[in-house]
Design goal:
The protein has about 325 residues and is mainly alpha-helical. The protein has one domain: Up-down Bundle (Rhopdopsin 7-helix transmembrane proteins), CATH 1.20.1070. About 80% of the residues lie in helices and about 5% in strands. The chain has eleven helices and three strands. The protein has a three-stranded antiparallel beta sheet with strand order 1-3-2. Strand 2 and strand 3 (about 170-175) form a beta hairpin. Helix 8 runs antiparallel to helix 9.
Length: about 325
């Protein structure tokens, strides 16, 4: 009964994550591709958001779907090669969500910074090189996970070492204590460096907005509104994304530290950690859709166009009669 209840909650959680995350990230990606084709360019911040929704989709496909399928009783459907690909894809894309969110917050910090040295140098150098920075982030994350191709295998009747992560369809056997610890240290360093940097950048953004708010207190209401629409909304969205990620990262880390203190980890605890580790892929696109002016404008225009077409169709039918 307890097992059935756990699987029911697991199925509800991951199928809901897929139902929200898949269409929302897909809509954002389609809109940004349309803008890139029609307008021939994207804002630097929208380029970063495009990468974020792409890695969100890969996280959902590589982790959300396997977890959802496992919750409804499907077992052992992957071979060794498929396990290696899915494991590598999830881990590198989870790392990219941290790095891309960090890059987004740092980019917004640089945008708000005063146009004086050394900020002027960063304003001139960082935004044009964002594609190269993202390529470097892919390389950094890819270099952390060679063990996915070396030690991940499909679940079968074979002996594993005590340094093995038992996943839903695969086993990640690090074989030795040294390999296990080295992998953990590399991941922990990456996570805490980028999470710390995005937190610092967000705190600086909040401070800059606070200072800006004090400066415009004596301005006319129309000028205040214009200032907020340009700076406050974009910055507030970035800070909100960082807050969501840091909160989920905190929950994930707390569960992880708890598992280190007990000898036998409950499957429900492991499921909860995986769920909170992938939840950002479903929550972040909602924030982007609600706060990105370009996306909201296109969606509203599409909705109005669809409404006009639906109201015109009965009239055309009546005329034909």
């Amino acid at each position: 009964m307890e097992l059935e209840l756990r699987l029911i909650f697991k199925a509800i959680g991951f199928f809901t994550l897929i139902a929200i995350g898949l269409p929302s990230n897909g809509i954002i990606l389609a809109i940004f591709i349309r803008i890139r084709i029609t307008e021939k360019k994207l804002l630097h911040s929208n380029t970063i958001l495009t990468m974020l929704v792409m890695v969100n989709l890969l996280v959902i496909f590589s982790k959300g779907f396997p977890q959802a399928i496992h919750s409804i009783g499907v077992r052992n459907i992957l071979n060794d090669i498929e396990c290696k690909i899915i494991s590598f894809t999830y881990r590198i894309c989870r790392g990219m969500t941290i790095c891309v969110t960090c890059l987004l917050s740092c980019n917004q910090w640089i945008i708000l910074a005063p146009s004086s040295s050394p900020w002027l140098y960063l304003k001139q150098k960082i935004p044009p090189n964002i594609p190269w920075i993202m390529a470097l982030l892919w390389c950094i994350n890819g270099a952390i996970y060679p063990s996915c191709f070396l030690h991940v295998r499909a679940i079968a009747n074979y002996t594993t070492s005590k340094y093995t992560l038992h996943l839903e369809f695969c086993n990640h056997d690090f074989m030795t204590f040294e390999s296990y610890v080295a992998n953990g240290i590399a991941i922990a360093l990456r996570d805490f460096i980028f999470v710390g940097t995005m937190t610092l950048a967000s705190c600086c953004i909040v401070f800059m907005l606070y200072q800006h708010g004090k400066q415009v207190q004596g301005m006319r209401s129309s000028d205040k509104k214009q200032g907020k629409s340009v700076e406050f909304k974009a910055s507030r969205a970035v800070v909100l994304l960082v807050v969501i990620y840091v909160a989920l990262f905190g929950i994930d880390s707390c569960i992880w530290m708890y598992t280190l203190m007990i000898s036998r980890v409950s499957p429900a605890i492991s499921d909860a950690r995986v769920f909170f580790g992938t939840l950002y892929a479903a929550l972040s696109p909602i924030v982007i859709i609600k706060t990105n002016k370009k996306i909201k404008t296109i969606l509203m225009c599409s909705a109005k166009k669809g409404l006009l077409q639906s109201t015109e169709e009965p009239t055309m039918t009546d005329t034909s009669k």
